[in-house]
Amino acid sequence: MEDLVDLLKEFAPGVLWLVFCVVIVFTAVVAAALSYHWHEYATDAQKSRFMFRGYLIVAGILALVMIMALLSYQNGI
Amino acid sequence: MVFKNGEKILFEVRRHWFVIVSESSLIILLGLLPFVALGASSWANLSPQSFWAVLFLCAGWLLILWSAFFIVWTNYYLDVWVVTNQRIIDIEQINLFNRTVSEFRLDRVQDITIKVNGFVATILGFGDIHVQTAGEMEKFLIKSAPKPYEIKDKIIREHDRALELARGGSHGGV
């Protein structure tokens, strides 16, 4: 466990920002592909909008948690 | 999707919920890992700074898994049979970039075969529905459809109605 703690302390904020950017780019690409599919292929436009919005809301909350944790880590709170 | 004049959707057939649960079971299991990590970090009395790093990684992990789950869900949801009052549209969504759409008129249905295979399928009531159409070599298939016997009855009822309409139309023309 102490090794893990040491490892976490070694993380430079720059590395975490890079991880954050990779995750956000991945999510954006997936969101764009899914948006196209739901828009083009779903039979019920209202239901598809509702589901895609649900995806975006959860993804947005997780991204927000990421960025808040990252800023807290960086500022040493 | 473009529908013809006077055409309306009667019902849609998707695979049974057991399919989406079994396809996403690995994602669900992997989604439990961050909670284990957060529990372990609080047990290990990490410094606040280390806790934020763990939380950051857990949220990132969950975000990737959430996207993966939604891709699985999209493939499940868009893989559908749309039964209208004129035809059956078979949309086969294999993955995000692999999709086949075929259709056949209801009055072309020749026979319908149901295959319920295995203990889980029997208990939960799902099975494969094969539809053979006139003049077609290929069978149309939807796998693991819920209540397959009910769906078969509905399709046969609509097939009979479509045949009646076709006969009525041809008699009216003579």
SSE diagram, text form:
The complex is a heterodimer of chains A (77) and B (174).
Chain A: H1 2-10, H2 13-41, H3 45-75
Chain B: E1 9-13, H1 17-23, H2 25-43, H3 48-78, E2 80-84, E3 87-95, E4 98-105, E5 109-115, H4 119-124, E6 126-133, E7 140-146, H5 148-173
Antiparallel strand pairs in B: 1-2, 2-3, 3-4, 5-6, 6-7
Name the features.
heterodimer, A: 77 residues, 90% helix, B: 174 residues, PH-domain like, 2 domains, four-stranded antiparallel beta sheet
Question: Would you give an account of this structure?
Answer:
The complex is a heterodimer of chains A (77) and B (174). With 77 residues, chain A is an all-alpha fold. Helix content of chain A is 90%, strand content 0%. Chain A has helices at residues 2-10, 13-41, 45-75. In chain A, helix 2 runs antiparallel to helix 3 (45-75). Chain A starts with a helix and ends with a helix. In chain A, 22% of the residues are buried. Chain B is α+β, with helices and mostly antiparallel strands. Chain B has two domains: 11-16 and 81-173, PH-domain like (Roll); 21-75. Chain B contains five helices and seven strands, in the order βαααββββαββα. In chain B, the strands form two sheets. A four-stranded antiparallel sheet of chain B has the order 1-2-3-4. Chain B is elongated. Chain B starts with 8 loop residues before the first strand and ends with a helix. The chains are: A mainly alpha (77), B alpha+beta (174). The A-B interface holds A 1, 4-5, 8-9, 11, 16, 19-20, 23, 26-27, 30-31, 33-34, 37-38, 41-43, 51, 55, 58-59, 62-63, 65-66, 69-70, 72-73, 76-77 and B 1, 9, 12, 40, 44, 46-50, 52-57, 59-60, 62-64, 66-67, 70-71, 73-74, 77-78, 80, 82, 91, 93, 96, 99.
